[in-house]
Write a structure and sequence with these properties.
With 181 residues, this protein is mainly α. It contains 7 helices and no strands. α3 packs antiparallel against α4, α4 runs antiparallel to α5 and α5 runs antiparallel to α6.
Length: 181
Amino acid sequence: MNNLNDLIQRLDKILKPINDAVQGIDRLQLVRYAAIYMLVAGIVSLCGGLALIGVGALGGIGGAIGAVGINTAEQTGGLNQQDVNEANQALQELGGATAFAVVTGLLSIITAPLLLLGALGLFQRRNWGRTLAMLAFAVNAIASLLGILSGGGIWNLVWVLISAYLAYFFYRDDGLKQVLS
């Protein structure tokens, strides 16, 4: 627990300019903005997760068909050993990419209900909404980070930064704790 407190204190110093900028904003308005963000992020996470799982499944099917084709061509003498080795290496890389897509998609699908339920709790100004918001923002930041690692663009970086900051902010801000009691 002491390591978490040390991390929070370091983040307080690093994020001081941002925290100072949001000090004058009404906490109820921030809660509404966060709830709307969570609603949109939940829908995007659900759709994106389903798409990633679909892409992973298609990649898996393509890999299976490719493996059959390689075996058939090898048995009929249509490929030399170098071609077989290159094709098998490509299939292994495809397998890794499809597995990564499926795992990232599953993480996004898990994140979606957290975001949507957290949004509901924030709209109702419930303390459990704050707790779910912190958890959902943290998981969403991790899912977006995985998206960056899988070749995602600038939007994944934006989602990581926003989600990570909001997880920290909802954990740390006393005004939000009072509004969401």
